[in-house]
Amino acid sequence: MSMQYDVRYAVSPQETKQMDTEALRKNFLIETVFAADQIQLTYTHYDRYMAGGAMPVSKSVKLETIDPLKAEFFLERREMGIINVGGAGTVEADGQTFELQNKEALYLGRGTKDVTFSSADGQNPAKFYINSAPAHHAYPSKKVTRKQAEVVELGTLETANARTITKLLIAGVIETCQLQMGMTELKTGSVWNTMPAHSHDRRMEVYLYFDVPAEQSVCHFMGEPTETRHIWMQNEQAVISPPWSVHSGSGTSNYTFIWGMAGENLDYGDMDIRKITELR
């Protein structure tokens, strides 16, 4: 079977304070996002969000419903965002064909029934990173290229956080119910993301770290601002960030990550900033 999934339940700040390294990784790290000819998904009870990946190598893979949804088809009551982090590929959705190059995005609206993922070249397969959230309305499916995205330059080399933020599936670029996705690319010599750190109790978030060079890693910081914890992460791994948690990272090299989120509102700037000197 090409569909594989696991389920993660929400945990509180009080529980998280007591977790050791193994427990933190079990609850928040998504260790395997991409597997050959598989769709891998993690269903989290934070805002019923899902994150995972489809990597067609020797054949196309089809999106099927999973038991926790109790739905006739996967997107019966959901919307989906897809960003390709691999080679060129194609998504077929209810008779429409969308070709996605590296770092291009696709939004699939509620009610989309038949979805299939394919790679142009199995030797350099597409890696479709998938996020999905419950949806109350059926917005049209739409591809978004990097040229169509909203791009912001932030940070400085002096503070090691010069970065380019590409807002792909976000209000002002595309209509969604609650799902938002974008990409942050750290410039050479920069390693810190999302500093000063922030939380937003109105929505949860998932990070996918990729473009991490061989033999390098990223240390992801999470937890309450005065009770931070860390998770060491490798290339093409993802991490769940609860609404009450900060979410930032520092790598042993520059890297890229995709942020995806859902919750109370679509205001990208809705953040509770935490001063660097207040972190513990």
From TrEMBL:
Keyword line: Isomerase, Metal-binding, Zinc
Cofactor: Zn(2+)
Name under which the protein is recorded: 4-deoxy-L-threo-5-hexosulose-uronate ketol-isomerase
Positions of Zn(2+) binding: H198, H200, E205, H247
A GO molecular-function descriptor: 4-deoxy-L-threo-5-hexosulose-uronate ketol-isomerase activity
Family: Belongs to the KduI family.
EC top class, as a word: isomerase
Gene3D superfamilies registered for this protein in UniProt: Jelly Rolls, pectin degrading enzyme 5-keto 4- deoxyuronate isomerase, domain 1
Gene Ontology BP annotations: D-galacturonate catabolic process; D-glucuronate catabolic process; pectin catabolic process
Reactions accelerated catalytically: 5-dehydro-4-deoxy-D-glucuronate = 3-deoxy-D-glycero-2,5-hexodiulosonate
